[in-house]
Amino acid sequence: MNFEDERPIFAQIAEEIENGILSGAFPEDSQIPSTTEISVRYKINPATVLKGMNLLVDSNIIYKKRGIGMFVAQDAKSKLMQKRKDQFYENFIVRVIDEANKLRLPKEEVQYMLERGFNR
Amino acid sequence: MNFIEVKSLTKTFGNVTALKNINLKFEGNKIYGLLGRNGAGKTTLLNIINNRIFPDSGEVLIDGVTAFENDYAQRNVYLMSEKNYYPLTMKVNNVFKWTNEFYPLFDMDYAKELTAKFGLNPAKKVKELSTGYNSIFKIIIALSVNTPYILLDEPVLGLDANHRAIFYKTLIENYNANPKTIIISTHLIDEVANVLEDIIIINQGEILKNESCEQLLTQGYTVTGSTTTINSFIADKNTIGYDTLGGLKTAYIYGSVDKSELPTGVEISKLDLQRLFIQLTNS
To answer: Do B173 and B131 fall into the same domain?
Structure first.
């Protein structure tokens, strides 16, 4: 969790759980930490944590077992993978190009840098 | 009716108006941040809610009944204040026992657990406690009384960074296990921001903001760029302050900003709670 991040805390909580699912730390059908555990661990108001959890419930990434807790949905990982791929262009490519324009870096140079990055 | 309601509260001290016609509602089981500069009226408000001082006019209702000279209503409220009202020569563990008499739901085992957790020596007399441990001693009582409303006036005064971390964690644990209304008045805004659900900013005896922390944070921005660009950009915006550095100007904006209408060469960033507070209450 990086609180210097400008996004609302509840969105960061949701992303942190998503990262756990993507990395395999929270496998499909396994239980994720409770609202209480997360709120105590990061010293965050439980209402904020719940809001982050509900984002994931609404997009069917996690589901609730009444009286037990929250669990990772069956196809959560592939769904998240697709979602992150969709965001990749907006979050990274567009920003790279905006910054390149600001620095007046020609397209060819950016392409060369990308190539260099792949060959690291 | 689980809430504290403050209606048209006014309080003056001599020719100083500490509170000017304040109206507020503290709902059940929420954590509130009561923020304000020194002398803004925070302590006066908390003292009136807890019936330690009387207002000139207005009323406070606790769960629908008057808070004034009403022991029945006040049994639901605990105020941890900066001032020490405990007998100075009494030992910490005796104060716990004594508190138990007034607050029947006081959890002695929990108080002992917290005493160990914070490393407070229960055999010490109240007057022997350092500023930090004096705060810790009062925090422990506030968290152990089990009243539906706890008011914490400057709870982390004198606490070192480690003790403050223990405090925030314990507070969240306590709130998760036994939801209650907690009102925290503090100057260490950065640290407490994530703990708070709602924010009340009080300035010169008046309520400046009263909304959810999240809502408040969506409205604070800084824009930085050349002075001429920034000046024309902020012409129709609610600017709450600015800084200049040579030809560079940073303006603090309260309200919404459409990022797509941002002129080139202007950097935008969000204001965190502390910076927003500073800009809103600078006079």
So the answer is: yes
Closest CA to B26 of B274, B232, B197: B197
Total domains, chain A: 2
In chain B the first and final C-alpha atoms are separated, in Å, by: 38
Residue B254 phi, psi dihedral angles, 5° rounding: -115, 120
Q: Is B164 near chain A, with CB under 8 Å?
A: no
Reported ipTM: the value is: 0.87
Judge whether A1 lies within some domain: no
**Which residue type does A94 have?**
V
- Of all residues in chain B, the one with the smallest CA distance to A101 is B264
| A39/B176 touch (CB, cutoff 8 Å), yes or no | yes
Q: Does A8 touch chain B (CB under 8 A)?
A: yes
Are B197 and A48 in contact (CB < 8 Å)?
Answer: yes
Residue at token pair 């009062």: B138
Q: Which residues pair with B225 in a beta bridge?
A: B249
Residue ranges of A 38-77 with Cβ closer than 8 A to chain B: 39-40, 42-48
Q: What is the CATH number of the domain that holds A61?
A: 1.10.10.10
The residue segments making up the domain with residue B118 are 3-211
Take residue A95 and report the two structure tokens written for it. 């920003």
- On whether both B204 and B229 belong to a single domain, the answer is no
Q: Which domain holds residue A69?
A: 9-74
Walk along chain B (283 residues) and give the pLDDT tens digit of each residue: 699 999 999 999 999 999 999 999 999 999 999 999 999 999 999 999 999 999 999 999 999 999 999 999 999 999 999 887 888 999 999 999 999 998 989 999 999 999 999 999 999 999 999 999 999 999 999 999 999 999 999 999 999 999 999 999 999 999 999 999 999 999 999 999 999 999 999 999 999 999 999 999 999 999 999 999 999 999 999 999 999 999 999 999 999 888 788 888 898 999 999 999 999 999 7
Residues B155, B139 contacting (CB under 8 angstroms): yes
Look at residues B169, B185, B211 and tell me which one is the last residue of a structural domain: B211
Cβ–Cβ contact B15 with A under 8 A = no
Nearest to B195 among A3, A8, A45 (CB): A45
